[in-house]
Amino acid sequence: MRGDETADRTRRFQDQVLIHLDAAYGLARYMTRDPAAAEDIVQDAFLRAHRAFDGFRGGDARAWLLTIVRNNVRSWAAARRDRAEQALESLPGQGAEIADDAAPTPEAWLAAQEDAADLRALIEGLPPAFRETLLLREMEEMSYRDIAAVTGAPVGTVMSRLARARDLLAAAWRRREAGETR
Amino acid sequence: MTACPDKAELLHGLLDNELDAAHARELEVHIATCPVCAEALVELRALRALLADPALRPKAPAALRARILADIGAVDPLHHVSKSQGRPRSRQLRRWGGAGVGVAIAASLLLLMVAPFGGDAALERELVAGHVRSLQAQHLLDVPTSDHHTVKPWFAGKLDYSPPVPELAAAGFPLQGGRLDYLAGRPVAALVYRHGAHVLNLYVWPDDGPRQPAFEARDGYNLMRWRDGGMAYWAVSDVGVEEMHAFATALAGAVAAQNPGKP
């Protein structure tokens, strides 16, 4: 019966994909730094996943979903950058918060983070490519291979980004601790 | 503080368990003689411990979950959100359009399957308290092993019943071990499963209960209760309701596989 099939498909989607809702939201939230945008991105990602679910043949549903979330984040960031560039034509390079190419230098980033209130803000301040790699590893405990699949980067790049992300974060955290005890 | 340049990235590989055995051994030999790299690894472990804080993992808002469930034609077991509530649907959803009759049927089926359980507030409090205690004290596990063939016999001399101890790693819930707890005036089996960074305590004892899983939220934890083969099951965790349901489904499948022939 058609109704049974639909119910079964819905059940399977919930068991295999929707269980990763917090993972999807966490990634979108940290990458956009904007709760409302994160919600829209995640809702849209689940719609896309649901539409494509019949074509999903097993495998790692979380990696599959997070890839969709990541692509949505990038589209969102690109649209935002376009708007920002139109608004700030006389100030090239400003307003591009998410673009990989426009990431600040680590030194500039560290300087800007000296007064960061907490670890979460420090993570949110990491350059995007480092941030997403760190999140997939530390929050989602994904293997380098899975992170490579989600981010489209080679495994070697995953390891070096992870190393850089942790070094930046540890350095920023040390600075914060030193500032607090002064 | 700064590791040897040729070792710096490898330390991350070691921390993440991504090195092959030969490289891992080689690096460990180096670390044993290089205080700088040893210190760097200690720092990496400290950072990982910092990042393990659950407060760093934002939970999806309940309203978002409800909207997605509405999008896919399911019903949120905890938050029955009427259409007038929540944010407007996205453009994609409008194109997605009506899944129609099937949605209504799916919704009614889910309503039948998931009903809130009435009642035993004192027991629920005990269960949540037991779960929280297991997380705080070093009393999470009496038998810390992922081998269910070890956990099951361990209970044999301590309980007057034999709880099923299925391994559910394939469903994303690796068994961590077991523990003896005292609940509802009797010693009961507590099985500990992990799901990502979350811990799930499963309490099992001979009792009655609803045949279909029933949910309750208490103090920020989700409780799920059901009955199977003369045993009452109570799962307590901070994982979401969907994960709980996936857990119950996997568990029921594994228990049925362990007891072929029994209804």
From TrEMBL, chain A:
Keywords of this entry: Sigma factor, Transcription, Transcription regulation
Gene3D superfamilies: 1.10.1740.10, Winged helix-like DNA-binding domain superfamily/Winged helix DNA-binding domain (1.10.10.10)
Start and end residues of each RNA polymerase sigma-70 region domain: 20-80
Record-level Gene Ontology MF annotations: DNA binding; sigma factor activity
Residue span, RNA polymerase sigma factor 70 region 4 type domain: 118-167
Coiled coil ranges: none
Family: Belongs to the sigma-70 factor family. ECF subfamily.
NCBIfam families tied to this protein: sigma70-ECF
Protein name (record): RNA polymerase sigma-70 factor (ECF subfamily)
Species of the source: Nitrospirillum amazonense
TrEMBL record, chain B:
Membrane spanning stretches: 96-117
Domain of life: Bacteria
Pfam families membership: zf-HC2
MF terms (GO), sorted A to Z: sigma factor antagonist activity
Gene Ontology biological process terms in this record: regulation of translation
Xref: Gene3D superfamilies: Anti-sigma factor, zinc-finger domain
Name this polypeptide is given: Anti-sigma factor RsiW
Species assigned in the record: Nitrospirillum amazonense
